[in-house]
Amino acid sequence: MTKIFDDPAQFADDALDGFVAANRQYVARVDGGVVRSTESPEGQVAVVIGGGSGHYPAFAGLVGAGLAAGSACGNMFASPSAGQVYRVAKASQSGGGVLLSYGNYAGDVLHFGQAQEKLNAEGIETRTVLVTDDIASAPLEEIGKRRGIAGDLTVFKVAGAAAEAGLDLDEVERLAIKANHHTRSLGVAFAGCTLPGADEPLFTVPEGMMSVGLGIHGEPGISEQPLPTASELAQLLVDGLLKDKPDIAGRRVAPILNGLGTVKYDELFLLFGKIEALLTAAGLEVVEPECGELVTSLDMSGLSLTLFWLDGELEKFWSAPADTPAFRKGNLAPRRARSVESLAEAGTAPVLAATPASTALAATALDALKEAQAVVVEHEETLGKLDAIAGDGDHGIGMRRGVDAAVAAAEKSHAAGAGLEELLAAAGEQWAERAGGTSGALWGAAVTAVGKTLGSKDSYTAADAAAAVNALRDAIVTLGKAEAGDKTMVDALLPFADTFSKAIDDGGSLAASLSAAAEAAAKAADATAELSPKKGRARPLAEKSLGHPDPGAVSFGLIARRVADYAATIESS
Amino acid sequence: MTKIFDDPAQFADDALDGFVAANRQYVARVDGGVVRSTESPEGQVAVVIGGGSGHYPAFAGLVGAGLAAGSACGNMFASPSAGQVYRVAKASQSGGGVLLSYGNYAGDVLHFGQAQEKLNAEGIETRTVLVTDDIASAPLEEIGKRRGIAGDLTVFKVAGAAAEAGLDLDEVERLAIKANHHTRSLGVAFAGCTLPGADEPLFTVPEGMMSVGLGIHGEPGISEQPLPTASELAQLLVDGLLKDKPDIAGRRVAPILNGLGTVKYDELFLLFGKIEALLTAAGLEVVEPECGELVTSLDMSGLSLTLFWLDGELEKFWSAPADTPAFRKGNLAPRRARSVESLAEAGTAPVLAATPASTALAATALDALKEAQAVVVEHEETLGKLDAIAGDGDHGIGMRRGVDAAVAAAEKSHAAGAGLEELLAAAGEQWAERAGGTSGALWGAAVTAVGKTLGSKDSYTAADAAAAVNALRDAIVTLGKAEAGDKTMVDALLPFADTFSKAIDDGGSLAASLSAAAEAAAKAADATAELSPKKGRARPLAEKSLGHPDPGAVSFGLIARRVADYAATIESS
Questions:
Q1: Which of A6, A271, B338, B404 lies 20 to 30 Å from A53, alpha-carbon distance?
Q2: Is B217 a catalytic residue?
Q3: CATH 1.25.40.340 residue ranges in chain B?
Q4: What is the pLDDT of residues B102-124, one digit of tens each?
Q5: Can you name the CATH fold of B8-326?
Q6: What region, left, alpha or beta, does residue A123 occupy, with left being phi > 0 and alpha being psi -120 to 50 degrees?
Q7: ipTM of predicted complex
Q8: A-chain residues within 8 Å CB-CB of B75?
Q9: Which CATH architecture has domain A356-572?
């Protein structure tokens, strides 16, 4: 049980501050995560990693010479926002391009993906290598769907060492992809973990049982069985991984036995001894093993075994020196400290010129955002309760954080004289960033897309409004990858967009069209009560949601209604 | 809960084997613990540490260049035997003498002390520095009675760095003593830990409460209070330690925030951030801090803060490079591997010449040991049950392990033609070593003392028997430091020795005197039921023992009776 905190809502931020305080020789805090506090050679590829907090030493503990250049650190078990990833990457890069690498989870793919686009758009060449080592999460035929767990380390380490050796982005990317192809993991769990401030564990394993393949956030596993002996457990893990051995595997292998939190060192060592004996008996040569806590899940009771199948070049980079808070190997020459002040400047931009029409519309957009804020405030508690039925109950607080930040950013932009596109870009970025979670990213992208579509024109027509609604729809659908019937906000969004287009095409006024669309959205949101979620990590909870509408669809309907009402007041004035 | 093992009785050994398998570049296994697997310069002082297992990375994880030369590893939470310490020290030393350093616990003091005597007797100059950092375990006026907890690290580190720098034993000892004087720790606990194979935790803390000053094996603390916030906890720890600040303290301080097992990294970092702010606000300068798991107690939930008050030379050795499995700092030149085969030879000795009378008496001693073995086997279960009332229930199994090993060693000595002194020395050493715990050490010392007193004479008289019994008594009293009425085996031993002396003085036969003494011992053992233990670490359990005799006194009475009966059969034949 997680016990040490002042305010559970600030846990991830406070912990990161303390981590930096304890490790100033390695890391410096930037908005969104941490970067090396030491200089990196000009032109070195920056390996930028990250993910949710609560998995220490993944990810911030792996930042340092010979490994990662920076880590974007999300909230507890939640992806960092695109803005966080973007800013950390900007502060990490040294002119050699950026390799983003992280475990394959939908939220991370979404946010890191957006950051990559933005970095590339700015001329910072950025690539992505996903880690997909967990053999329990999908069959070999669908290897690309596998989750990333402790195998993160092999990919980050090889990429970081390749960057340290001065290889270019093409080579670093190639080696990281290869390391991922050579890495397989299998985990078991004995008990779940408890998030700061929560009364109950996030997920559970029945007493006296072991869940095979359960993910590090409680994602479904393969099977449950009674607790085995250490020798039986070693056999289960080794057999499972040898069956899934990559075709290119040779005789040399680096095993990584990873504790998830409350399985302690002596237990890990004891098990490692059995595993080493089995690998040796299988004719393999054990090289540079690791045994300890490398990817944790707070106080989760469980462990995983990773086999990293080496060839000449992978072994070279796996064995290379590294010097980070949590992972040290060999000797690296001491690095000079870099100026931390210079980091604060990354990611700010001047106000761009805009047409009078765009600047006027920006004021209207700000007011509309304030209306959205008001309706979210009114329903914050209800949305939270609705989300608690089938999720972690943070939809109300998340929407609130997002819309509050969006309004604050829009006000600042407006005061600086920004046009519509710039104002909505600032609002969208802050929404995505402060809300946390997938819905924050979707709303942020939607707001940004509306601004981009409307741009800076001399005047605006009904056709522009239709185009803006379509852009809003496309942004959410493209980024979220949900389909109609998945029980998400898309179930309210699609009827909204369809109804609006049709109403405008039929010559309706903006306010009347918006009103009809909002009504369709609200109705569709209510209808999501009949659906079961198509994805969702907490098994027993997902089923509970039947009979209750999706909170994301409900909040979409509420905001649509309020904005339509606001449009009516403008049109009539 | 400790879950991963095959046979709980083999846990510590199996875990140590696995630890070595995972860390061959640093450590090699020797009988009794681990030593560096790399060469140390000839003439370097060997810092030899150790203690019970279950505290990783203390102690085996701290063996390597710039830190310890070897670690003696006892059973779970139990001191290593004198033989283990002796053999590890022999295999660790490089001709510059040995510094033994460990936490101040009665069992460790006893066993390390015996090893020190033996090493010094062999011409390997050996000193001891106890760690006494836990301010909750005794008031400042009785600083020498304080327990050692995470402050172990500062003392070991400074001593190891001083040895690495080539300083001689006087200097290494002086610096270790100084480091201990400059180190203060305070711990808190939220929940106890469970030994491998146990159904219940070794000790508990009430739900929702925090115990301040509770020791790492459940030793009594100072107070209990409801769980505080992180800021309140930081204040409590910092205030407590600043109040106990040594007079010689300056402005520079190295804080060590140590997690005991299930308080995880993010929680530790979060707390560290608050602690650093308080120390800075108090006008102190934080230097080279540590935050992580450095001395654990299996899956215990708790943490401790250590303040190491630096001066110029202490800071120099604290900051110096070290390279061990669990603690790495700076860069040290790579070391050559040493030959592990050569380690196996340490600690064996040839058979010495003995008189025919001594060799004949050795055969009788072997038979008497077999009688003792038989009675222990008969009562093993009863003794275990008796011990479980107020202790950890291992007295039966411990006596069994000890006497089995003693008989096996005596048989081997006898087959090699050894005299009495040598045979009993071998038996005593093995008894102490295999039994584990204090009673094993006491029996081992007693058996050895009897052999030493009887020596290798041309003939033996009743006066020799009386001297032997007195030697047996003195060995146990001197080593165990228990007094009459403390509810220990001494309560049976003293009446036994008194009755025997008196009976021999009165001209009684050996058998009759032994019989009278055995009767007195058995009666006194029964009478211990009326006593309460004077020490004992598990608070609630100690009181439960009232009304039940002490298992150590009972086993002493049983063995005395059986040996007396055996003496009667010899005398009559």
A1: A271
A2: yes
A3: 356-572
A4: 999 988 998 999 899 999 999 99
A5: Rossmann fold (3.40.50)
A6: left
A7: 0.84
A8: none
A9: Alpha Horseshoe (1.25)
